[in-house]
Amino acid sequence: MALKRIAFCILFCVSQVQSLNVDLAGSNLSSLPLSSIPTSVTSLILDNNVLTVVEFPDGYDILGSLRLKNNLLSEFPNLCSIKNSLVNLVLHTNRISDVNPQLMKCLQKMKSLNLGDNLLTSFPDVFMPRLETLKLFYNFFEGIPFIPDLGKTLNLLQIGNNPIKRLTRHSLDQLGALTLKMGWTPISTLPNLCHLKNSSALTVSATDAYNLTCDCHIRWLQLVSPLNPIVEVNSAPCFSPVEMVGVNFHSIRPESLQCLGRPVLKVHLS
Questions:
Q1: Residue 3 belongs to a domain
Q2: Range of the domain at 59
Q3: 234-238: Cβ within 8 A, 24+ apart
Q4: Does residue 199 sit within a domain?
Q5: What is d(CA 160, CA 138) in angstroms, rounded to the nearest whole number?
Q6: 43 occurs within a structural domain
Q7: How many domains does the chain contain in total?
Q8: 218-241 pLDDT, tens digit each
Q9: Maximum CA extent, the chain
Q10: Which of 33-47, 186-200, 254-268 has the highest mean pLDDT?
C-alpha cells in the first residue's frame, strides 16, 4: 500500500510540473508582468486586458497555449521566441489589421489560430505544416483569402460574419480537404461546387446566409445527394425573388427555382 501511495505521489507531482496554467485575465495589464509568469508555464491566459505589445524573452520553452482575447493589439505579435512550443493562439477581439508573414512563418508548430473579430481584409499565404484550425470570423474580408499553401493542412476555416457577397470556384478550388464555415454572410448565390477539383473533400457551411437569391443558379443544391452534402444551407431563407422572400431554401422544389428573362452569357477570367 505504501508503494502505491509513493507511485501515486510521483505521478501526481510530475503531472503538476508538466501542466502549469497561469490566469491573468481581467487584470488591467498594459505590459507583460514577467515576474508573475514563471518560465515553466504551459498555458497562459491574458484575456480582457489593455495590452498593445506582447513579446516573450527566451526561456519560455514549454508555453503551448496563449490567450490574448479582448486586448488592444494592432499588429500580429512577435512570438518567435516561443516558436518551438506554441500550439494554440487566441487573438480574438483586438485591432489587428495586418499579419506579418514572417511572424507567422516562425510558428511552425501551431495547430490552432483564432483571429476572429479584428480588422483584417487579407491574410498571408504561409505554409504551416501543423495548422488545422484558422478562425477569421467578424473581420472585413470581401472574399475567401487566397491561401493555397496555408490551406493544405487546414481542417476548418471559419470565415463567417464577413462582408462576402460572392464565392467563386477559383477561390474554392485552392482549398484542400476542409470545412468552410460561412454563417451570417451576405452571399447571394453559390457556384456549382460539384465541378470543383476537391468537391468530394470540401464542405461549405453557409447556414444563416441572409441574402440568398433562390433562382436557377442554385438549383444544383437541391439535386445534390443528402447523403453526401457539399454545402449546408439549413435555415437560410430566400432574400429574392419577391415571391420567395423569407421562404426556407429546403422547402422549395427544384423546378420552382427559375431564372426570369433571356439568358446572358458571362465570362469570368481568373
A1: no
A2: 21-163
A3: 234/207, 235/207, 235/208, 236/206, 236/207, 236/208, 236/209, 236/210, 236/212, 237/210, 237/212, 238/212, 238/213, 238/214
A4: no
A5: 7
A6: yes
A7: 1
A8: 888 877 756 566 777 766 788 888
A9: 88
A10: 33-47
Express each pLDDT in 49-83 by its tens digit.
999 999 999 999 999 999 999 999 999 999 999 99
Place of cell 444544383: 220
Residue 199 has pLDDT above 50, yes or no: yes
Give the C-alpha separation, 135 to 133, whole Å.
Answer: 7
Task: Answer yes or no: is 196 within a domain.
Answer: no
Per-residue pLDDT tens digits for 178-195: 889 888 888 888 888 877
Q: What is the CATH number of the domain that holds 36?
A: 3.80.10.10
User: Exposed, middle or buried by CB within 10 Å (0-12, 13-18, 19+), for 239?
Assistant: middle
* C-alpha distance from residue 124 to each of 102, 107, 120, 145 (Å): 9, 14, 11, 8
For 79-129, write each residue's pLDDT tens digit.
Answer: 999 999 999 999 999 999 999 999 999 999 999 999 999 999 999 999 999
d(CA 103, CA 182): 27
pTM of the model: 0.85
226, three cell numbers: 443528402
The rounded distance, in Å, linking the Cα atoms of 136 and 157 is: 8
Helix, strand, coil shares, percent, the chain, to 5: 20, 15, 65
Please give the distance of CA 237 from its chain centroid, rounded to a whole number. Answer: 24
